[in-house]
Amino acid sequence: AQSVTQLDSQVPVFEEAPVELRCNYSSSVSVYLFWYVQYPNQGLQLLLKYLSGSTLVESINGFEAEFNKSQTSFHLRKPSVHISDTAEYFCAVSEFGGFKTIFGAGTRLFVKA
Amino acid sequence: DAGVTQSPTHLIKTRGQQVTLRCSPKSGHDTVSWYQQALGQGPQFIFQYYEEEERQRGNFPDRFSGHQFPNYSSELNVNALLLGDSALYLCASSLQTGSYEQYFGPGTRLTVT
Predict the structure, then answer these.
(1) Which residues make Cβ contacts (< 8 Å) with residue B97, sequence separation at least 6?
(2) Which of A7, A32, A44, B105 keeps 20 to 30 A from A87, CA to CA?
(3) Is B84 helix (H, G, I), strand (E, B) or coil?
(4) Which residues pair with B90 in a beta bridge?
(5) Three-class SS state of A53
(6) Using one digit for the tens of pLDDT, what is the confidence trace for B17-44?
(7) Chain B residues with at least one Cβ partner in A under 8 Å
């Protein structure tokens, strides 16, 4: 069975500092990997995804994540955060040929001025 | 291009009652998934509908049922409501032939008293 573990429930960081949100997954088959962001009182928005090919994927707003198959990880990074990045971030996995997506418990990123 | 819409936004029900939540997928999408997000947790997969049939189901009791209409919109029904059913219910749409990328609606906040 699939599972997703987000290793930090909360990450406080100062504005313009780098940040890494950690995600590990477990699956017996090949997977697709995703990061979603949720702002207060809103639904989830796709931030970036890994389907195949290059293991480093980037979003339009400066986030990047690297798929590491040997460590079964998909950590999210940003070299310099903004106040507006304050939100809940969810790592998710879907198995090849499957229909459901499994989400981690989320990491709350809090950017301080 | 309208995104995923859900109604109602908020709902308050009494224990034992029944509730119906509605979802209209993003234009062009043919697949609808439902998730339950309890406070402080990640979304939990309830089920997915494609071609008006339930294609896969998560670990939820039969009190949770759904329907997909020919226009791809969907309903989630919950019978015999329990206090523990209080949560944000998220609808996500996608393309059957797509890359597992899901677009989420803003959710329906259900409170059971």
Answers:
(1) none
(2) A32
(3) helix
(4) B35
(5) coil
(6) 999 999 999 998 999 999 999 998 999 9
(7) 4, 33, 35, 40-45, 48, 50, 55-56, 58, 90, 92, 99-107
